[in-house]
């Protein structure tokens, strides 16, 4: 049996990974400060420390555990919120990541997997984006996620690191109360409240939408996959989905194809117009994500309706 530290364990992706690790018969140690995560997501089987990864003294509370690998997901993870208090992003996303890397070296924890983000690319051309293009993050969030990723790469001489640049992850477990984080959950929250969907920016914007189950499958596979050590991957589906197409799929799955939609004539600061992933590297070492948009949205809508 192995023990994995999951930072951000009370959040959307961290809690989904924790569930799978436990299902596989391994153990989870978790840390979270409940910035956006929820205590109810921290399962009783998890050895949990309420703490802040930007504080070395909080990470020291984890020293008593024998840890085999780290899944690092804790972050301020909204581009929009990053403008409200940019220092927080620097402290958590950049300094917190550096602290955690130092912790891993000190504790001789060799495996380190990092949640990077597609926001590090900034504005790009309308074509599949490969890992090696120039990075020009626009949002304060993207800047600090890139700093975190660069720290991780700098430690790859001492640790077995892997960074996944996550595109838009959606699905069961996503926060339905936070209207500043998560494109799919934000739109679906309007359906849930029975209000017109309020869309900031054009319906022609496009994203690469990947279901949470595909993300969890690939993260868990990577733990012991030596060829992924020291590497950075785009983690998306490789498919381009326009916002208006996403809204159509959501409305159909919700059961009301004429659901009202209102477009604002302004967008969100730091938002890129469109991006989708070149996933050749991912396919070479793993596989192509399996869940298509219609199936993934149906799963998510069912979960939202049955909550
Ligand atoms: N969801 C996506 O589409 C997406 C896309 C790209 C990258 N990511 C990255 O994936 C990771 C997880 O994202 P998510 O969607 O689950 O977001 P989330 O907000 O649900 O989870 C982040 C968790 O980190 C915790 N946290 C924040 N600051 C902390 C701190 N200083 N110390 C300890 N815990 C702290 C929060 O309370 C929360 O539980 C993040 O690193 C994010 O940048 C997510």
Polypeptide structure, described:
This protein has 307 residues and is α/β, with parallel strands linked by helices. It folds into two domains: 194 residues, 3-Layer(aba) Sandwich (Rossmann fold); 90 residues, UDP-galactose 4-epimerase, domain 1, CATH 3.90.25.10. Strands 3-2-1-4-5-6-11 form a seven-stranded parallel beta sheet, with helices on both faces. A two-stranded parallel ribbon has the order 7-10. Strands 8-13 form a two-stranded parallel sheet. Helix 1 packs across helix 6 and helix 7 crosses helix 9. The relative contact order is 0.14. The mean pLDDT is 97. Nicotinamide-adenine-dinucleotide binds next to helix 1, strand 2, helix 3, strand 5 and strand 7. The site of nicotinamide-adenine-dinucleotide has 31 residues, from helix 1, strand 2, helix 3, strand 5 and strand 7.
Could you write a compact summary of the structure shown?
The protein has 307 residues and is an alpha/beta fold.
Helix and strand topology:
Elements: E1 3-7, H1 12-23, E2 27-32, E3 47-50, H2 56-60, E4 69-72, H3 86-106, E5 111-117, H4 140-154, E6 160-166, E7 168-170, H5 183-193, E8 197-200, E9 206-207, E10 209-211, H6 212-222, E11 231-235, E12 241-242, H7 243-254, E13 261-264, H8 280-285, H9 293-306
Parallel strand pairs: 1-2, 1-4, 2-3, 4-5, 5-6, 6-11, 7-10, 8-13
Antiparallel strand pairs: 9-12
Helix pairs in contact: 1-6, 3-4, 5-7, 7-9
The structure holds nicotinamide-adenine-dinucleotide.
Residues 8, 10-14, 31-37, 52-54, 73-77, 92, 96, 115, 117, 145, 166, 168-169, 175, 182 line the site of nicotinamide-adenine-dinucleotide.
């Amino acid at each position: 049996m192995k023990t994995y530290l999951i930072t951000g364990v009370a959040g959307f992706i961290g809690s989904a990974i924790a569930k799978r690790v436990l299902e596989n018969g391994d153990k989870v140690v978790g840390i979270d400060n409940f910035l956006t995560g929820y205590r109810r997501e921290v399962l009783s089987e998890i050895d949990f420390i309420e703490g802040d990864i930007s504080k070395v003294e909080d990470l020291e509370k984890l020293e008593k555990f024998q840890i085999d690998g780290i899944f690092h997901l804790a972050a301020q993870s909204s581009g929009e919120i990053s403008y409200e208090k940019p220092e927080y992003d620097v402290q958590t996303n950049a300094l917190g990541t550096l602290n955690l890397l130092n912790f891993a070296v000190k504790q001789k924890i060799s495996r380190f997997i990092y949640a990077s983000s597609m926001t590090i690319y900034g504005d790009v051309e309308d074509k599949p984006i490969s890992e090696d293009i120039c990075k020009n993050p626009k949002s304060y969030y993207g800047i600090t996620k890139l700093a975190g990723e660069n720290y991780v790469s700098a430690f790859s001489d001492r640790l077995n690191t892997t960074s996944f640049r996550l595109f838009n992850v959606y699905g069961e477990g996503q926060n339905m109360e936070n209207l500043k984080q998560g494109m799919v959950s934000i739109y679906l929250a309007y359906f849930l409240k029975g209000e017109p969907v309020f869309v900031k920016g054009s319906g022609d914007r496009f994203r690469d939408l990947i279901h949470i189950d595909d993300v969890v499958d690939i993260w868990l596979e990577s733990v012991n996959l030596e060829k992924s050590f020291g590497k950075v991957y785009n983690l998306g589906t490789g498919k381009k989905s326009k916002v208006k197409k996403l809204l159509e799929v959501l409305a159909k799955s919700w059961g009301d194809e004429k659901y009202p939609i209102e477009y604002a004539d302004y967008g969100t600061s730091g938002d890129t117009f469109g991006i989708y992933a070149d996933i050749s590297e991912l396919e070479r070492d793993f596989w192509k994500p399996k869940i298509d948009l219609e199936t993934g949205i149906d799963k998510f809508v069912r979960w939202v309706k049955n909550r």
